[in-house]
Amino acid sequence: MRRFFTLLSRLALAALLAAPLAAVAEDPPPAAPRNAMPAAAAAARAALVRGPSEVKLRDQAVLQLPEHFGFIPRKQGADLMSAMGNRVGDDFLGLIMPLERGDSHANWFVTVDYDPAGYVKDDDAKHWDADKLLKSLKDGTEAANAERGRMGVPPIVVTRWIEPPAYDPATHRLIWSAEAKLKNGTDADPTINYNTYVLGREGYLELNLITSTSEVDSDKAAARELLSAVKFNGGKSYGDFNSSTDKVAAYGLAALVAGVAAKKLGLLALLAATLVKFAKVIAIGAAGGFAALGKWWKSRTSRSA
Question: Does the predicted model carry a pTM greater than 0.70?
Fold first, then answer.
């Protein structure tokens, strides 16, 4: 059961839920979470690490945070997301936000996680079929819609690849992104998870860019820049694997696309009860709410510059 909830919580901001309903849009936010937001935001601003800086990712790796990016450490990032009605698990390491610059309209953010799953074998990347992986993702999501319905959450459908899975065996980096929409078609500009991974000896790091369909083509450059800025420590890299002593993950690389992802999409229904309904930032899943969050964050980071 621990693994079940870990997989669930790794989509910390519930971006693919995309299920704010008109019936609840006017509801006032609950008093406790609403009152927690100012303190959580202030703590996040105070703890913000501005690039260029070196950010340690546990005892595993280092992120050379580029200029115009800000990193919110685990505690403050978790508190901020809790104030917004989102939970994080043990894998969560922090948040990355864009800071003010010429493209000040940017409204994305990145969740950073490390999963100590063990050494993930990448052999299946040589033979995988993107069409079959997409079908598996679609089928898994459809099967999980029954659980979503029991939880009172609208069903979703995976429609297409935003970017088909691409794995670089030289750097052990994986990138993929699929579009998931409400089945009733009411979300004209769905929120997108642009998933990037780098494999290590004992697990993998995931940098998950949260953006929208209309903005992903421009925003994904930031995700790629951040992924290239991650380097595992000596003795922790993929090439340091020792088959006689090290743990091997229970799944291969394809599971990070089809298997694990399908569980994420379906099990997000269980997060529905934790979502906080702010007046303009509702569930972080709708494009309008997402844009409001970006403007809210940037207005505060720029004041503290």
Answer: yes
